[in-house]
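Hi V.,

You were right to ask for the full record rather than a summary. Here it is.
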Amino acid sequence: MGLLTSEDTALLDSLDRHARRRAEGIPTLSALVGDPERALQLWTQWLHRSGLKAAFAQSEDLRSTVSAWATQLARERNLFRDAESYVVFSQRAISSRELHFEGKTQHDRRVLFERLEPPHAEPVTWALCRQLLEAPEPAPQGTLPNEVREAISHDPLRVLHALLLIIPEGRAPALHLALSPSDPRSLRTATAICSAAPLLHVACVLPPDALEGTRGRKDSHALAMMREGLLELPDPASVATVQDLPVAEPAVPRRASSKKKAPASPPEPHVAPPLLERFRVNAEAMVAEREKSEAHARSKMEHFFYHDILQVHPATKDVFTLNAKVELGEGKRPLEVDLLSRELRLAVEIDGQHHFLDPDRFRRDRRKDLALQRIGYWVARFLYEDLHPRCEDILKTLESLMEARRREATAQRTTHGQP
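Predicted structure:
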C-alpha cells in the first residue's frame, strides 16, 4: 500500500488497541471512516500483520452474516477435529487415547459419545460438537457442515459463540461488515454480533459522509458502540509521508576569525538518514510502546486471575503465591515467577504475544524454564489473553498438574518407607 504515514501508523495502533479491548471481553466495533480504498488497505494491512483473514458479509440479515463468517472459518479449519479436541479436553475420567472419533463409523461415534460426561457450562457448544462428531459423513475440507448451517438458521448468535469456543484462541477469522449507519437492521446486526462474541474482530469501512445522517439523533446502543470504535482517516491531500517530513539540521556554532572570508560555496544538500533506518527506529519505538502497554494489561490480568479466580476457586485457594522469588543458590540471582507453588514445585508464567515475537525474550524465557526445571519445578505457561476467555480450561490444566504433583510426592514418600 506504499509508504505508511504517521497517521496510518496511529490508525494501525488504534486497531491494536481495539484488539486488546476485545481480549478483555469488551464488545468493540472498529468503524474506519474516510476514503474507502485507503481504509480497506489499512484494515487489510492490519489483518495481514495479525495473521488473520476476514469474511465479508452484508449486515442486514443476522443469519446470513453469521453463515458467511462460519463458511470462512470452515475454509481455514477442520471443524470435525476442533470439535474432537474440545470434547477430549473436557473429559477427566476417560483417557484422551480412547477419545478418537476420526476413522470410526457413525454407530461407533455415537456409542463413544454416550460414554462422555457433558460439562456443566456451554451446553450449546457441547450439542454442536455432538452434531459434528455424530454426522453420517464429515463435511469435505473447506465446506461448512450442514449441521452448522442448520444450527445457524435456528440460533445464529449461540452458534457463533459455540464455534469460537471450540477453535483455538486467536485463530478465528475477522468479520468485515458492509454496514449502513442509517439502516437500523444493519446496526442491530453489528451490535448483536459484537455483544455475543466480544473476542471476534469486527470492522466496517464507511465513506466520510456516512455519519451525517446520524448527527443529532439520540444515540442507540448500536450507534454508541459504533462511535466508540470510530477511527477517522485524515484527508489524503493533507497527509505527508515519512519521506516528506522535514529534518532539522544541527546548529553549528560560528567561530570568530580575522582571516578574509572565502567566497561562499553553494550549500551542500542535506542528506536525510536512509529511509529504511528511519522505519527501523520508528518500528522499534512502536514495539517498545506496545510492549509497555501489554505489560501493564498483563499485570492487571494477573492480579485479577490470582485474587478473583485462583483464590476463590476451592481447588487452587492458597496454593499459589503471586510474583514470588525462587532462589537458585550458588550466588545466582533469584528468579521472579508470576504464580508459584513452593509446596507442589509448580511455576506458572503468564506470557504476552511479544514473548514469542522477540527472539531475545523467547531465549530468556527458555533459559528461565530450564533453570526452574533443574531445581525440580514444573513450568506451565499461558497467554494472558487466554486468562479470561479460557479460564475454565486453564483451571482444569492447573488442577491436573497439582494432582500429578501430589501423586508424585505420595509415591516418593512410599518409596522411602514413609507412611
